[in-house]
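Researcher: I'd like a candidate sequence for this fold, 376 residues long. If you have to choose between options at a position, lean toward the conservative one.
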């Protein structure tokens, strides 16, 4: 009986010892999976090189998208204040026009009537002016009554108002009243371009009657186009007026168009975005209103701890770097990265790495060595 008791205690002791040893082995094996051990030849073949992290000035980049827009003062809607029939035009969407160029010719009998009324009014104005001056002279010598003089003065001033009003109507219709005589009355008027640009819309055809409220053509001056970008609310504090932007489109991403921020909207959309307007530093004919663009904004630079891009490896959505642990042994450590610029990547780590040698070349060879070891 006593022999049986000793045997049971001995078995229990051995069992506990084996569990502890197995546990130690398991723990040791888990730790060793983060250590890559190579031979001298493997180190040479992998070209492993170590270096200290460096402090580097890095500017973070804010990526945005938007489209090219035209300010309201650069979009001109052409209409006919007095209406009329479209007699001739050569315009098509995309046609280039110069300031002062004839866009279209309109005709209507009201133009004839307006010119007739003006010339008749001017003739009557000359008669009333002479009568007013005559009555003024007679009244001064008491040869005519005050009533007659006042009537002549009233008629003359009323006619001045009428002729001035007709003169402004002629200008509105595009007729110069200073050049109008009884010999050059015309039934048609010409519409001239007020800007240099191109035609974006043509809303009429020859022979159609156009009312004063209708828009015949729409012109755009493209030399002052700007880029309207969408910025999320959380990023608004990172930008300011005067910042420089590099814009590009998907068709030619390597061609950059420099811009400068000129306006930041204070109104948020339902999607929690605000519009930021920037001006192109130089006009490029291939940039058209409505074209979608991407843009990079260089934010303020800061000093960070950085390593070459090759020092960072990614495995199962986690980023790592390797540090030497004795001869030909390298430990894999998880890290977080920040901004990348000019071949360097910002390192964000809870550990102090300023004086820690890190593998800057051959990191992927070490990762492959660890993966192959774990699969054995």
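Model: Candidate sequence:
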């Amino acid at each position: 009986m006593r022999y049986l008791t000793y045997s049971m205690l001995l078995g229990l002791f051995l069992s506990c010892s084996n569990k502890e040893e197995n546990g130690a082995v398991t723990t040791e094996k888990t730790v060793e999976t983060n250590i890559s051990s190579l031979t001298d030849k493997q180190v040479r073949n992998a070209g492993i090189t170590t270096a200290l992290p460096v402090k580097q000035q890095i500017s973070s980049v804010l990526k945005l998208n938007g489209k090219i827009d035209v300010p309201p003062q650069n979009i001109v809607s052409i209409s006919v204040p007095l209406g009329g029939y479209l007699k001739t035009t050569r315009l098509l969407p995309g046609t280039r026009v110069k300031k002062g160029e004839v866009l279209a010719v309109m005709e209507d009998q009201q133009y004839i009537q307006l010119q007739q009324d003006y010339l008749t009014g001017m003739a009557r104005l000359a008669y009333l002016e002479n009568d007013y001056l005559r009555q003024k002279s007679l009244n001064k010598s008491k040869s005519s009554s005050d009533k007659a003089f006042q009537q002549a003065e009233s008629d003359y001033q009323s006619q001045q108002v009428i002729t001035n009003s007709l003169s402004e109507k002629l200008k509105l219709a595009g007729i110069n009243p200073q050049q109008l005589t009884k010999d050059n009355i015309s039934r048609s008027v010409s519409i001239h371009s007020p800007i240099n640009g191109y035609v974006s819309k043509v809303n009429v055809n020859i022979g159609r009657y156009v009312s004063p409220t209708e828009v015949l053509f729409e012109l755009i001056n493209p030399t002052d186009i700007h880029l309207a970008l969408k910025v999320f609310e959380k990023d608004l504090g990172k930008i300011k007026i005067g910042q420089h932007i590099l814009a590009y489109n998907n068709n030619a991403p390597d061609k950059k168009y420099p811009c400068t921020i000129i306006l930041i909207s204070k109104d948020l959309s339902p999607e929690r975005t605000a519009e930021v307007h920037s001006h192109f530093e130089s006009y490029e004919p291939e940039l058209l209103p409505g074209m979608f663009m991407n843009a990079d904004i260089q934010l303020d630079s800061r000093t960070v701890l950085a390593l070459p891009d090759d020092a960072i490896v990614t495995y199962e959505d986690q980023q790592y770097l390797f540090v030497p642990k004795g001869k030909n042994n390298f430990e894999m450590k998880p890290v977080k990265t920040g901004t990348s610029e000019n071949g360097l990547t910002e390192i964000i780590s809870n550990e102090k790495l300023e004086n820690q040698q890190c593998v800057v070349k051959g990191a992927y060879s070490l990762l492959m060595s660890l993966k192959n070891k774990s699969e054995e």
